[in-house]
Specification:
341 residues, alpha+beta, nine-stranded mixed beta sheet
Length: 341
């Protein structure tokens, strides 16, 4: 599966599969029953889906140890409708940082969705890739997403590696699975972390109240292992620039981990960073913060560096990217503010 960096309540789920058990069906655990009927889906993923209410039997939630009975009706529903794997190539410019016969590295702008999905069928990175490149490989189980081995959120800017060959796709996918890909992000966050560097080793997973949001589960009772290493780069008193190195790549991992620490990413609407988290309630300060929100109207998060073993040469290569203009301008505003206030 493609690695995430990226849901509605039950009544907004879309049915993907409906399976009727045979009249002579023997008693068998539902996860074992489904693994033989759903292509390219692991037993772990089925169990997670059951826990999150995506799998029902006779319109009722069940537990992973439920045993299928004759004539049971099993439904599998997901937050997005069944995916149309047809891609419309679009002549969208790409900021290509590096390219050879096996792969390319692109610098994705904020606001661009990585692949077509519900409510975003055009204007994506994949629409651009299929226009500029032919016959990009597709990972099993991710048809309609040619070249992709990982992704970053729509409003996160930064580096992505794209596979151009089957060899590259297989090698890069394994490196992501083994957590050997080196990825650093920079973010403007509310407040100044104390201590100034450390490791967040706290499970994250979909919120039990709102599946669109990833939350931390510090007791480890839910979610999946997530590890983020962080360090302070610059202190602006009310906000700070930090660098994060990902050891795992869960959906919204950095955004959820920083909120858990009490330092949500600046202007991250989904995780509370678009509120006045640090500082005074004076009108002048509030107006300054609002102006900064307008300068960087998205979460202040950038995928800055990317390093991996080249699939063909077997040599380590690393790429770096400049912070985008909106990011730099917001930092300059904060630097000026703390200097003269």
């Amino acid at each position: 599966m493609i690695q995430d960096e990226d849901n509605e309540p039950d009544d907004d789920l879309f049915e993907h599969h409906r399976i009727l058990a045979d009249p002579g069906q023997s008693l068998i655990r539902i996860d074992k029953f489904l693994i033989d009927r759903l292509p390219n889906v692991t037993r772990t993923k089925i169990q997670v889906g059951i826990h999150e209410g995506f799998v029902k039997v006779n319109d009722k939630n069940i537990k992973p140890n439920y045993k299928i009975h004759p004539n049971d009706v099993i439904t599998v529903s997901l937050p997005e409708p069944p995916r149309d794997t047809d891609i419309n190539p679009e002549n969208i410019p790409l900021n290509i940082v590096y390219e050879d016969n096996h792969l390319l590295v692109v610098n994705k702008p904020a606001g661009m969705v990585v692949h077509p999905a519900y409510q975003n069928w055009s204007g994506t990175l994949v629409n651009a890739l299929t226009y500029h490149f032919q016959n990009l490989p597709e990972m099993k189980g991710n048809e309609g997403r040619p070249g992709l081995v990982h992704r970053i959120d729509k409003d996160t800017s930064g580096l992505l590696v794209i596979a151009k060959t089957e060899l590259a796709m297989t090698s890069l996918a394994k490196q992501f699975f083994d957590h050997s890909i080196e990825r650093t992000y920079q973010a403007i966050v509310w407040g100044v972390p104390e201590p100034n560097e450390g490791t967040i080793n706290v499970n994250v997973g979909r919120s039990l109240k709102d599946r669109r949001v990833t939350v931390a589960f510090p007791k480890g009772d839910f979610g999946r292992t997530a590890i983020t290493h962080f360090k302070l780069v610059k202190d602006f008193r009310y906000v700070s620039l930090i660098e994060c190195q990902l050891e795992t790549g869960r959906t919204h991992q950095i955004r959820a981990h920083m909120k858990y620490l009490g330092h949500p990413i600046f202007n991250d609407e989904m995780y509370g960073g678009n509120q006045l988290v640090k500082g005074t309630m004076f009108t002048k300060y509030k107006q300054f913060v609002d102006n900064c929100f307008k300068i960087i109207p998205r979460q202040a998060l950038h995928a800055k560096t990317l390093g991996f073993i080249h699939p063909a040469s077997q040599k380590y290569i690393q790429f770096d990217s400049d912070l985008p203009h909106d990011f730099k301008e917001a930092m300059e505003k904060w630097e000026h503010y703390v200097k003269y206030n």
